[in-house]
Design brief:
The chain has 205 residues and is mainly alpha-helical. The chain has 10 helices and no strands. The protein is globular.
């Protein structure tokens, strides 16, 4: 005779086992990450040492925060609010590693780069992985956009160190953080990259 209570109990035990396994795997990944060498700054990894040092050393580039982006890219700004990148700091706070540079490199915007994220007290506007977390400092892009308003004939797109005009570098920004250890966010880089051309990339798999 079918025992519904026994069946429900078995299902609950199975779910508890699965959750325990998931948390155990997650904790082990964090332990392995912290035991590894400090990861290279994504922007530096994508550009290469010389190009990175030349650009950042010039003092021309600085991070401005995604609030500036919403003025011209409103749909993308709103769409990204529903994206896991925009809440990446929550997982650090939950785990207690929100001040660990090894983790902040990939959970904030520009950590380790001059004018980038430092901590919640000093640079809350650069918390989470915002637009500039993938594209690099945005001040020059904003200047070019203002030039467009003043004189459309002289406007040139771009201004980012890792802009959409250079997908090779932009994809390196992705793989700098989404390593083999942390690849659960996507299984196909090209497919995921293409999905982010949309304002709401939540359909990616």
């Amino acid at each position: 005779m079918f025992n519904s209570k026994s069946y429900i109990f078995q299902i609950l035990i199975l779910q508890l086992f699965l959750l325990t396994s998931i948390f155990a795997d997650e904790n082990q990944r964090i332990i392995d990450e912290l035991a590894s060498p400090v990861p290279q700054i994504p922007l530096k990894s994508a550009l290469g040492d010389k190009a990175y040092n030349d650009a950042i050393g010039s003092g021309k580039y600085r991070y401005v925060g995604s609030s500036k982006c919403r003025l011209c890219h409103r749909k993308f700004f709103i769409g990204r609010k529903n994206d896991p990148h925009d809440s990446s700091m929550k997982s650090l706070v939950k785990s207690g590693y929100e001040e660990n540079s090894q983790c902040l490199t990939c959970h904030s915007t520009g950590h380790g780069v001059k004018t980038g994220y430092i901590n919640q007290a000093l640079t809350p506007r650069l918390s989470n992985v915002q637009c500039e977390g993938c594209h690099g400092p945005g001040n020059i892009h904003i200047k070019l956009a203002k030039d467009k308003i003043r004189n459309k004939s002289t406007f040139k797109k771009g201004g980012f160190l890792a802009g959409t005009d250079n997908p090779k570098i932009l994809k390196k920004m992705c793989t700098s953080c989404h390593t083999k250890r942390w690849d659960k966010s996507y299984h196909d880089l090209d497919k995921s990259y293409d999905s982010y051309k949309n304002a709401s990339p939540n359909s990616r798999k």
